[in-house]
Amino acid sequence: MTATFEAGTTAATTINPTSATTAAANHDFNLGIAGFRYSDLYRAEKLKELAEKFYASLTEENPLLHEALTGYIGARGQGYEQKTESKILTDAAPYLSEFIARLFGVERQRENLLHAIREQDPIWKYKFFVQRRAAKKFTPEKISALNLNELDWAVSELKFAAFGETLIHDDELSIAEITVGLLNTEEALTKNLERTPKTEETLRKLSAAFDKLKDKTFGRVFAQFADEINETGAVLQVKTVLILLEAWSAAQFFAHQKKWYSLKTPHTLDYQHLVHLTRENEKIPEAMHGLDKDLRRRVGFKLTDDRGTVRDSLYEVDYCLICHERSKDSCSKGFH
User: Fold this and answer.
1) C-alpha closest to that of 95 among 62, 48, 71
2) Residue 18 banded pLDDT, cuts 50, 70, 90
3) Each residue of 255-308: pLDDT tens digit?
4) Inter-residue contact 2 to 15 (CB < 8 Å)
5) How far apart are alpha carbons 300 and 313 in whole angstroms?
6) Is the distance from CB of 58 to CB of 69 less than 8 angstroms?
7) Which of these ranges, 19-23, 93-97, 181-185, 190-194, has the smallest mean pLDDT?
């Protein structure tokens, strides 16, 4: 059913079921996959052909993934362990994304978006470092014994002396980039991996920074933590700096002062009380009042927030991926 509008009157009439295809044909154009036009997206048989094109391209690019994906589809997901299912789908997603971008000729826009997304990658690795490593090693009791002002100064001195290139970013991304670079360097050194130019650059910058900072706050704090490491040379330097960052990060995590996504943890929501309300008049219990800090004035009929940033969205995606392989993604599966 559809509505037609004539001279101020409204009438509901039955339309031909092919009208959607007709409308698409009036605005038809060639797609980025040879042999397909926009109107084909409304035809079941052409969609089947298009899907076969995707599977054929996946066969060429990643035969093993193609076999796993088609096997999963053929079984309709039955009998697959949750983590296996999750890995198949998430591994296939980038190939499907590239195929769709090629289909609509938006490869450049997709690359721009990928660049913006990858720029944020260190934050999610740093989040893992903070919550799975730093916060477990440096408990609130251990942190209480540290001089937090000295820790702050030491981290700032390190940032400016060795990693000045990260200062173009906000504080969260800057610290995340530094930490992830050191983690990669630690892995290369301790596992005897081939040293990449990035590893060599990190070691060179650290060495130069130590010469500048040995008599400053960083040098004193470094000496305190270095006693815990039974290593020498570059390994000692990298591991000790990471302990310093563990202590500093754990302090930020437990202080709850920085509104960083890498320090944020999920919490239980009471869906019946999503907004905190007060009832100030006992005689009129139905009279409710929100907190003043949450009050936002509506201007006309426009939204009163500015929607999310790329980082806002990626925080949710990161959480979704964690939940998906554990079958905890209630937003898609519902509550059991």
Assistant:
1) 62
2) low
3) 988 999 999 987 777 777 788 888 888 888 888 888 887 777 777 877 777 778
4) yes
5) 27
6) yes
7) 19-23
Given a contact cutoff of 8 angstroms between Cβ atoms, the answer to whether 225 and 158 are in contact is no
How many beta carbons lie within 10 A of that of residue 253, not counting itself? 22
> Residue 299 has what DSSP assignment?
-
SS3 215: coil
Per-residue pLDDT tens over the stretch 114-131: 999 999 999 999 999 999
Q: Which residue stretches of 214-299 are H helix?
A: 217-226, 233-255
The SS3 assignment for 238 reads helix
Q: What is the DSSP string of 10-37?
A: EEEE---TTHHHHHHHHT--B-SSTT-B
Instruction: Count Cβ atoms below 10 Å from residue 30 Cβ, excluding itself.
Output: 11
Token pair of 35, please? 């042999």
d(CA 158, CA 117): 27
